[in-house]
């Protein structure tokens, strides 16, 4: 009985998802993703990797670089229309 209810519920949820949730291709490019934003993201990832290699310091130049890279991304996204 519980298995039947569970199957029906899952079929219902799957049908709803297929009907109302848009499908997106795997290599879908976000409209706000620009070359500049991609460069900022790469710089942020590099800064994060450096920060991890330096044992994740909370103070100093390495942490400032990491925080600045993250802030640059947020500022760039806020400026987008």
What is this structure's SSE topology?
Layout lengths: L1 H19 L14 H19 L7 H19 L2
The number of helices is 3
Strand content: under 5%
Order of helices and strands: HHH
End-to-end separation in angstroms reads: 53 Å
Number of domains: 1
Tell me what the structure shows.
By secondary structure, this protein is mostly helical. It has helices spanning 2-20, 35-53, 61-79. The protein has one domain (2-79). The radius of gyration is 21 Å and the shape is elongated. The termini are far apart.
Task: Supply the key terms.
81 residues; mainly alpha; 0% strand; elongated
Care to give the gist of this entry?
70% of the residues lie in helices and 0% in strands.
